[in-house]
Amino acid sequence: MTTVTQQTIDRVLVATINHAPVNALNQAARQGLKDALEAFENDRSLVALVVTGSERFFSAGADITEFTRPAQPPSIASLIETIEQCDRPVIAAISGRALGGGLELALGCHLRVGTASSRYALPESKLGLLPAVGGTQRLPRLIGPVEALKAICSGEEIPAKRALELGLIDQIAQGELIPAAVALGKSSQTVPSRANAPITLSAQEREAFDQEAARLLKRHRGQEAIDACVQAVRAAVDGPLEVGLALERELFAKLQEGAQSQAMRHVFFAERRVGKLPASTQADFEPAATVAIVGGGMMGRGIAMSLLDAGLNVTLIDVDETAAGKAVQGVAGQYQRAIDKGTLTEEEKTARMQRLTTAVDIAAVAPADVVIEAVFESMAVKKDIFQQLGRHARPGAVLASNTSTLDLNEIAAASGRPADVVGMHFFSPAHIMRLVEVIRGEKTSLSTLAQALDLTRRMKKIGVVVGVCDGFVGNRMIGKRSQQVDRLLLDGALPRPIDDALTRFGFPMGPLAVNDMAGLDVAQNVRQSRGQVFPVADAICALGRYGQKTQAGYYRYEPGSRKPVDDPEITALIEKVSEQQGVQRRELSEEEILDRTLLPVINEGFRLLEEGMACHADDIDVTLIHGYGWPRSTGGPMFYAEQMGLKTLCAKMEKLAAELGDPAFEPAHLLRALADEGLSVHALSRRDLPA
Ligand code: 3H9
Q1: What is the tens place of the pLDDT at every residue in 556-588?
Q2: 167, 162, 225, 161: which is closest to 197 by C-alpha?
Q3: Which domains, and CATH codes, for the chain?
Q4: 96 C-alpha to center of ligand 1: Å?
Q5: Cβ–Cβ under 8 Å, residues 468 and 519
Q6: CA 580 to CA 453: how far, in whole Å?
């Protein structure tokens, strides 16, 4: 089938984009649209042109894979120019999503009609870019600059009803889309588009715009794309369309070349590459319909919600009726909050709750296709449960453990059927966090692994396959940062400068504020079980300061507040511990803080690849971004390492290893080898799955 088909209905030419899977506007699609526009221009018997797409996608926008190659004509901008010169109406008929350059093409049409379920977004800022074919100019003219700025900087989708209220679309089709668009085309004249009219604001509206711009710049400090979006929308407010369009083009070109956008585009594709079994893998499994969850605590409830949202039947099993009832109430409460926020309907809640049952006997796992254990992190408890699961679960059912630290092979052995056992390490809150480390034990079968990955995908989560090792990928890597943070405190830093350095780098929270939130006793228990000593952290815990829950940790907290306040008591304590340890405190620069907290984490990533615990650098990038707040705009730890240059990274680490005498800075063999050879870690082919 050609990429854009043409059909005449009742003297209206209908051009349909057919470029599966998402109707990205690649060169062939753009050429097809150009041909349709020419056919329309040349046939004076036609009264209108309708541009449309598939049921799911009007268009997902420009083809991102083309961004690394020289641009090929025709451009989307030239198509829009041609549309604007048409003396008969061009109508965008939108079903599914109109995103990025796809929406901009629709904004360039004279009128827009959408289905009731159509959705609209300019998500370019999520790729470190700005809409570059008129989106920053036409959207503010159509829906007002404040709403446009919010939409452009968030990239969030606007549903059809809201799009109609805002004036983004002109009509929601009452019956079928194409007949509605044809009728609209036949009854319309080409009038100058509202999307090109000048913007006039009252003093009050101007102030509201300035305030919104300032809020967004503060919230997304350091994100070049957001700066550019604000500048471009301001140009739409302040001046003529042509000037704004020229600025938009200039800003896009700069961003496209920049490190942040390259990193964010890398993450976009990495997220889609991970968690896929090689095409050659023969893994037989029936997609699960029923899942049993053992343990109705916070984690169990979050997992249950993700499964219910995905349309599965769920049985929640807990020790007694009271615990099971509490779990169901917890799930219902979360759904009610979603209804209150307007993100869920009453009917959707009812349908989900009807698929949720409870049980107090573990034998209730019998009909389940998959069982997920989500109980307390104790080897004895988990082994006992897997022993019972081995007896009660039906043959062939997948048995998944939500362990975050324990040896999956030992848990699997207890079941007596280790081929059926896999780890599914969810992150809290499980109904929101998208990452799942899918842990392959030494005996996990391929079909078990494939079932776990399929379930993860159906829950709209990102599954990353990892091998069995202490902390798996994420916790093992981030654990290296914790060690260094304690050492930095000992050497002269204080909590605030460490947290500030990492938030300025792009983490949503600093590590010490995170520790206070998680509870310092939790980390202390893990350290004690491993025989690790962290002098500063241990001294803080010894005072009963366990973080937010005791209103004191690395910071202090006012009653009822989660805002960390610097505490002179902690400064004095840290200085005392340094003295006791015989450490001469000194001033530490932000650069040193960053190098000492980030480089050992990255180094551990190379070690994980070397050991085959992770299959590819993409997997590590995605894990740290989705599980630990590593800033997306740097592309993840391994991509950040590549952008720094592996040689530079090695040299920095060797210098720190010599200065600090700390083996954590000894470059991993793989890192050194790649640096010596001048090779890229992302270019290494995906390894076989860890086993
Ligand atoms: C833009 O428009 C700039 C303009 O302002 C100016 C230009 C000059 N291009 O996510 P999925 C692939 S920037 C190329 O698994 P879903 C994707 O890689 C663009 N490929 O499906 C995957 O490939 P594979 C602005 C794309 O249903 C396959 O399609 N637009 C593109 O869960 C399926 O994708 C955006 O930022 C693309 N634009 O979600 C939208 N989009 O099968 C980005 C997708 O080989 N895309 N692919 O793994 C998305 O947000 C989601 O992919 C979408 C579908 C919601 C569309």
Answers
A1: 999 989 999 999 999 999 999 999 999 999 999
A2: 167
A3: 4-257 (3.90.226.10), 291-466 (3.40.50.720), 475-580 (1.10.1040.50), 591-677 (1.10.1040.10)
A4: 14
A5: no
A6: 50
- Cα separation, 344 vs 8, in Å, equals 40
pLDDT computed for residue 257 by the predictor: 94
Mutate to test the pocket of ligand 1, among 25, 64, 457 (most ligand atoms within 8 A of CB): 64
Q: Which atom of ligand 1 is nearest to the CA of 77?
A: 8
User: Could you read off the pLDDT of 261-319 as tens digits, one per residue?
Assistant: 999 999 999 999 998 887 777 778 899 999 999 999 999 999 999 999 999 999 999 99
**What's the order of all strands across the beta sheet hosting 290-294?**
356-359, 313-317, 290-294, 370-373, 398-401, 421-426, 435-440, 462-467
Sequence-ordered list of residues with C-beta below 8 angstroms from that of 38, at least 6 positions apart, any chain: none
Residues serving a catalytic function are: 104, 124
DSSP class of residue 419 equals G
Q: Is 296 helix (H, G, I), strand (E, B) or coil?
A: coil
Torsion angle of alpha carbons 327, 333, 338, 340, nearest 10°?
180
What digits encode the pLDDT tens for the residues 17-40? Answer: 999 999 999 999 999 999 999 999
Cβ < 6 A, ligand 1 pocket? 21-22, 24, 60-65, 76, 99-101, 104, 123-124, 127, 131-133, 135, 272
Bridge partners of residue 4, in order along the sequence: 17
